[in-house]
Each structure stands twice: as structure tokens, then as C-alpha cells.
Amino acid sequence: MKKRRILATIMSAAMFATTLVGCGSDNNNSSSNSGSNGSSGSANDGGGSGSVEELTWMFWDDLNATEDLISLGYKDTIERFNNDFKGKYHVTAITTNLEEYYNKLNALVAAGETPDVFIVSPGPQLTDYVEPGVAAPLDEYLNKDGWKDTFTSDAVFTQQTYDGKIYAVPLNTAAACCFYNTEMFEKAGAKVPTNWDEMMEACEKLKAAKYTPVTISAGTAWCLSMVAGYLCDAEGVDLPKLADGSASWEDGKLESACNKLLDLSKYFQRTAAGDTNDVATANFYNEEAAILIQGSWVIGQINGSNPDFESKCGVFQFPGVDKIIAKSDSLCMSSKTKNPEAAATLIKYFTDDTAQKYTAEKGGKIPVTKVQYDASVAPKQLGYVMDVFSNAKGTFGFYNESMPTTETGAHFDDTMVSVFLGDMTPAEAAKDMEEFYKTNCRK
Amino acid sequence: MSSSKSAVAELDPTSRKKIAPIQVVIYVFLILICITYIFPLLWVFNVSFKTNKEIFSAPFALPEKVTFDNYSFAWTAGRLGIATFNSFVVCVASLILSMIIGSMAAFGIARMRWKGAKLAMTYFLTGMMIPVHCVLIPLFTRFAKLGLSNTITGLILPYLTFSLPITIFIMTGFFKGIPNELIESACMEGANIFQIFFRICLPLGRTGLFVTGLMTFIGNWNELLLAMVFISDDAKKTLPVSLSKFVGPYNTNYSQMFAAIIIAIIPTIIVYCAFSNKIVDGLTAGAVKG
Amino acid sequence: MDKLLRNKKAIAVFMLPAFILFTLVLFIPIVQSVYYSFCDYKAVTDPVFIGFDNYKTLMHDKTFGIALKNSMFFLIFSCVSQLVVGLFYAALLTNIKAGRNTFKNIIYLPCVLSSAALGLMWMFIFSPKLGINQLLEKWGVEEPPLWLMDTKGHIILPMWIIAFVALWQYVGQSMMLYMAQISGISKSLMEASYIDGCTKAKTFRYITLPLIKPMIATAMSLNAIGSLKFFDLIYNMTEGGPNHKTEVLATHLYQQGFKYTKYGYASAIGVVLLILCLLVTLFINKVVKTEQYEM
Known about the structure:
The structure holds 3 protein chains of 3 kinds.
Chain A: H1 2-37, E1 53-59, H2 69-84, E2 89-95, H3 101-110, E3 117-120, H4 124-130, H5 139-142, E4 161-162, E5 165-166, E6 168-181, H6 182-188, H7 196-208, E7 212-215, H8 221-235, H9 239-244, H10 253-265, H11 277-285, E8 289-295, H12 298-305, E9 313-316, E10 324-333, H13 340-350, H14 353-363, E11 366-367, H15 380-391, E12 395-396, H16 406-421, H17 426-440
Parallel strand pairs in A: 1-2, 1-3, 7-8, 10-12
Antiparallel strand pairs in A: 3-10, 4-5, 6-8, 6-9, 6-10, 6-11
Chain B: H1 3-17, H2 21-47, H3 52-57, H4 69-76, H5 80-110, H6 117-126, H7 132-146, H8 152-176, H9 180-188, H10 193-204, H11 206-221, H12 225-230, H13 239-247, H14 254-289
Helix pairs in contact in B: 4-14, 5-6, 5-8, 5-11, 5-13, 6-8, 8-11, 9-10, 11-14, 13-14
Chain C: H1 2-5, H2 8-36, E1 39-40, E2 48-49, H3 53-60, H4 62-94, H5 100-112, H6 115-125, H7 132-138, H8 157-184, H9 187-195, H10 200-211, H11 213-228, H12 232-237, H13 249-258, H14 263-294
Antiparallel strand pairs in C: 1-2
Helix pairs in contact in C: 2-14, 3-14, 4-8, 4-11, 4-13, 5-8, 8-11, 11-14, 13-14
Protein name (chain B): Raffinose/stachyose/melibiose transport system permease protein
Main location (chain B): membrane
Subcellular location (chain B): Cell membrane
């Protein structure tokens, strides 16, 4: 009797397994089908015989739907790589939108399917992947064939270095600036502000001329928080001291930064509370608002979406601050990649002259290598940003990316949005941040 | 889409017989209600043929010229074509498997004579109360270890399992209703138990299979959360995920987004228009029993 | 025949596939989920038992508070509104002859459509520059409402909008359930009441309503569970924004679990959700029973 029962169990287990296998082969079919539907078709050349090394590259914009010129440049690079190494390597891009990016990346890491190469923002986000050993050190590859020497200076690796080892390769640098509509400024009689009072004055004039002075996104919290970051820096908020507990959020600095934010918020577009980053940026290049405070990565987006706008777009440094927020896209290599050589070669493709030239001339971002590019064909805004950059007395990171953990950064973003929405007074925000730091960040 | 008109047309001959004022009020009400159902869909349909500029310059006019550019963009760049195919594979596979496995268990509970039958039923029924969200994390980590995450199989398994309770419940009802004599006479003719199940009971439970199949298919076809968590590969995403990711709140190419929405709902609308009465009644019957 | 039906091997073959699947994919994960909720567990680390810490953190988590409040709002709103509107539609439809099917099918249509797609559709309709605001602009309304971006009030406008969209989408289901029950009431009973001089309204009040009470409980429990599981519409209409004000338990769980990979903490939210679902089901089941005795 017992034997029979065991037999029955095995039988149905086998049945279960066959159904699984059934689905499995099903799934293989469908994935190869979709591979051939995909844009870069060399996937099937190898026919899965194992002669082609498959790589994955993960990025935060949809390469097939995007109008962003930087993203399109990355797409070119990927295609270039796939063509040059046809039959040897093949890269598949895994893409998500920016908001979902880290969700998906974390999911893949947890699943043990870390993409071979993936993009990360320097700061705590990179730390999240360096500390548990998800990202591999890259010095070995950088030191080979003089790759490292092609970069403008070793300083470009500062944010990517942990314990003397480089864990990510920057691809370009962008600086957060104020972009403005020169035509609107002229018509309103506003002049380019150099300090906070002039900024308020300019906004008032723009408002009087029936323009929306500033477009910003509070729906995408980091956009608003970036402005708050500038204001905090102007007030002298010291993040490292806050993190180790030698300074308090309640010392009045954050409070006065928040008050300034509220002053500025009178000039925001009506829908700032819910507008997402893309919508807020569209307000600017569709000439519905005069000033956009954004990183220079938007140049690619602005010129890609509305090419006619380039001639009207000016740039000035965020008034009242002598430093500038800078950020670079960086690529990491998975420590578990089966083919580190290919992965490193792929990263190298993003910093070769073709890619870097494109970065400057088409994308409008500051290249990281010593590449010679033709400034006359590069977007006009890049020249302005370079000017702002060279006049600035230094750079600092995004506020939310300069805090101890990603969650702390997100909490800061949310708190700033709450202040903007009037759910918290500046004093309450300071208290809230202090409490959050006490419970989560200081040990 | 023209169904509201036909309703009005149907109304005429009857109202000629006797016109009660209350009836007129009811019809006015119903027509107003139906407008809230049809107008938004028509608006999206209309806008999906426009250019981005037209949406803002003439929001409610008919499109200047009808092109399918928006659609082809959404279909290829938004990967809705692949996604529709994936959704179809996932839904059909989980539909067939859940019907077979579910009705087998239902037969075991309804007709086989063993002590644990009632207990087994209760066990399966608790599944109906459990929201998918609660098992999301353990399932995700486990599938990740088994290499099932990011595969279509990894999606079929939970879809199939979550359709089981309702399938078992409804099919048990149907199998219990089959007269004993039928099974007895089959027995006399020397049929074994599996023949009785596949040749007699399953065909007799056709209506039940239709109802559960419909519920399973529609539920899985529209499922977003699990698919979003489990699938990260663009080539394996299902329709609701690809749509949400493509449209998302992050896009400003409105006309293409509208085309994507239409692509996502049009197959269901067509099928629904063709079999609406059967579908509505079937789903209602399923819900009553559930 | 009896021997055939008592064949243990056959029973096993019939039951085991479903049983194994169910246990592996549903039951064990539930147990695991409860265990994880007592653990400090992040994506890259292994779970470490920490007792009730996650639940303690939940109590101080502002967003969780909002999410719980919003879930409760949806629960109550959907139960009440689906009952009232569903009954109203059913009453209207049972009182007409021509075109009943057409109306019924139109109202039921959104129930079978993807709520992800419909959520996106309504997101555009209520977006500040499109849809309704374009209409309002045409009619000369200055400063039209911000709809999904409004943040004023105790229960903010976006919550009401999402609640009404949910009502719009799923009321067909309730309506059909009530209609099915009403059409089951015997004609002779209705006729008797007319002969006794009852008006249609009175018949509805004294005959129809009491007889469909059990169905009310069924429909309500469907709505209640459905509204607790709410995810698609919110995810696609507001993503929990502005500033987490439209977050519900399901979206908060998704955020915490898959954005910050706090698996342990997210599991605790899941357990709260599970308990709520069980409580609501039990509560409504009890109501069903008492009412069946009344019949």
C-alpha cells in the first residue's frame, strides 16, 4: 500500500515536471521569437550554439522610444559594439524608465542575474552595489592599454573610488544649471540674475509680463530637491557633519533654505505639485515657462524634442551659490559576469573617441576624456554650461545622493516636497530630518 | 461603439405602444450613464490618430488626416506587439493548465469517496482570500533562486495557482450535479476512472469550464503586479506591463501614448462585442458562485 | 463502482498536482512571508530574526499611516457606493424592456478591460492640460482644477477621483449580481404585490430589497476584498503621489519591497494586508449567515 502511494506521488511529480518542461520549452521559443523581433538582429546569428558570448547592459531609458540624444548615443554605441564583435560578443540592452530603474536592478541582483554592465549614479547608490560586492573593481582593465590615460584627469574617478579601487567608469559629466528662455527674458525686461535678490526680481518681472517664471517638477521629487540642495548649500548646510552628528538639522540653516524655496515656489507653474520631470521639462522647451532648473543632461532632451529652441535657450548658474552640482553617468561591471573581458571592452566603447565626441557634439554633455570635439557643432548650451562650470569654485553631488543611504536621500526629497506643498513648515521639516538622521543614520 | 444608437432605435417601437413618463426618465438616465462609459473611450480613440500639436490646438475635432503612425510607433518602439504575444502565451498556458489541474482536483473532491475531501476543499478555498501581494516577496526570492524569475514559466506558475481555487470551487459544483446513473452505467461498460473523468464528466462540465476559463483568462490578461515584479526583460513583458512602462507618467508624446492604450484594450473590446452576452452572464455566474 | 471511486491511486493522481502547486506557490510562501515579517531582510543579505521591530517601525511610518487610511477609505467607499449605485442601475435596468442587454453590456464593459490601461486613460483625462481641462477651457473656466495633483483637504481630491474611477469600472459587476438575483424572484410574487396595490417603488422596497439581501453580502465581500487589493489604478494614475498622499497598502508594499528592497519590512505590510482581508471576509461571512436565517 505504502509503495503504491509513493509511486503515485512520483507519478504526479513527474507529471508536474513535464508540465514545467512543457512551459519551459514554450518559453524558449517565445524568447527567441522576440529576439528576432527586436531591433538589433544579430542575436540569432550564433543560433545559441555557444560561439557568441552574450552580455547584458542595463540602462534607465528606453532606447527604442526615447528622443533623448544622449540615450540615442548609447544606442549607437551598443550597435557599434555588436557590429564590431559580430560572432564574438553580443550585447542585449535591458531598459526601464528612470523611476523604476533601481527597483529592477535590485530585483535582478537579488535573483542572481546581475546584468554584466549597468549604469549607476555615483554616491550611496553606487555604494549599495560596491559594499556587498555586486560591482567589480575595474583598475586592472583601466590600467591596461593606457585606457585610463585617455580620461581628462584622475579626478573624474573621485566619486567612483572606494578604498583606492575604481568601481565604475564615468561616461560624461553634467552640471545642474538654470536654463532660460532668452526671448521671454528680453520681452519681460528681466536680466540674468547673479544673486538671490536678482533672481526674485527677474521672476517678478516675468510674472508681470504674464509668463510662468519657473517650471519645475515636484511630482518627481528629486527635481525639487535639487533646487533645495542648492539653497541648502548656499546656507552652509554641512552634510558630513550632519551624518556624524556633530551638526544638527535644526540649526536654522535648513529652515532658511526652505523659506527661500517657498519664496521661489510662488513663481512655479501651477501644476508643479504633480508634474513629472518630463512634463516640467516639456513646459520649458514648448515655451510655456521661462526658467528650468535642471542638470545639463536635459540639453539632449530639449534639443531632441524641439530643435528650433536651441537658439533661444540660455544658461546661468544657480544664483547665490558659487559651487555647482555635478553628476556623471557611470558604468559598473558585475562581479559575477562570466566574461569580464567582454564587459570591460563594452565599457571602453562608451569612452572611446566616437562615443565621447558624440557626447559633446550631439548630446551636449561634458566629455570625460581628452577627446577633441568640434565646439561649433556642439549644442550652444554646452558652451554656456562649460562657461558656468569653469567659473564655479567647485562641485558637489546631488543632495539626495550625498546622504548616508538611498533611503535617507528619498526621505529628504519627500520632506522638501512636503514643505513645498505646505504639509510641513520649514521648522517641522528640520525637526523631521533631525529625527530621521537620529534613528537611521547616526550610530 | 454604436450600441447606444441601436438602443435608441430599439426603444422606438415599444414606446409607441405605451409611453409611460417614468420609462422616458429611465431611458434618459441610462443613456446619460452610457455616455460616461463610451465617451472617454471614444475620446482616447479619436486623439490616438492626432499629432501632438493637434491634441492641443483642436482637442475635440476629428483628426485632420487619419494615419497609423502613432500605432506603428507604439507597436514597435513600445514593444506592444511582443507584449501582446507574450500575454497570449502566458494566459493560454495558464488557462489550459488551470482547467486541467483544477477540474481534476474538483472531480477528486466532488465524486471520489475519501475522508479528506471536505478538508481539501477548505484548503483550496482559503486561497481565495489570500491577496497576491502577501506572497509576492517569498515567491520572488524563491523563483530567483530557482532561476524562474524573468521567465514566462515563472509567471505561468503563480497565474495558474491563483486561478485554481475558483476553478476547483465552480467545477466541484458542476461535477456534483452530474447524475449518479451516468457514472454507474459507464462503470458497467468497463470504463476506468480516468475515462469516466475525461469522456463523461469533463464534457458535461463544459459550461463550468467556459465560465472558469473566462474568469481565469480575463483576470490573468489584465494582471499587472506579478508580471511587473517577475519580468524585467523587455522581450518577455506582458501587455499591462509594457503598456504601463511605455505610457507611464514620464512621457509627453501624448498621441503615441493614446495609441498604446487603444492597442491594449481593443482586442478585449472586439471579443467582448462579439460575445458580450455570454461573457457577461458567464462572469456573473462565476462571481455568484465565488 | 464504489471500489473505483475509492481507488487511492486515482484520488492521488486527481488531487496531487493541484495540491503540490497550491502548497508550493501559495501556502509555503504565506508562511515564509509571515516569518520574513519578523526579520531584517534586504535583497543582498540573508534574513535575520528581529522580532516585532518591523511592526514597531510600521507604527511610526507616516506613509504607512496614509496608506492604511487610504485603503480603509477605498474599502468603505467601494462597499457603499457599489451597493447604492449598483442597486440603482439594476433597478433601472429591470424596469425597461427594450435595449436592456445593450445598456447592461455597455456598463459591464470596463470590468473586462485592463485596469492598467483604463487607469492610464483616466490619468490623461484628468491631467492638467488634457481631457476635462480642455473642455473646461473651452467653456471659459479660468484656473481649472488640478484634479490628480490637488493636495488640499482631509481626503484629497485625487483619492475621490480614483475612487470614482474604480466605481465606474467595477459597478457593472455589482449591477449584474443584483440583476441576476432580481430576475430570480418569482413573477407571481411580484404580480401578487401589484394586485395588492403596491406601486413599483413600494414593491422594490418591500419585496425586491429583502430578497436580494444575501446577494448584497456576496457583492459586498467581492468589493471589499477587491478594494483592499487595489493596485493597478493607483499605480497608473498617480503612482502614489503627490508626495505619497494616494499611497495604499499594496503600492506601499511594492515601493518598500521592490524600490528599497526592504523585504522584511514589506512582508510586514503584506501580513497586515492579509489580516485585513481575512477579517473583512470573516465579518461579511458572518453577516451572510445571519441573513440567510432571516430568509
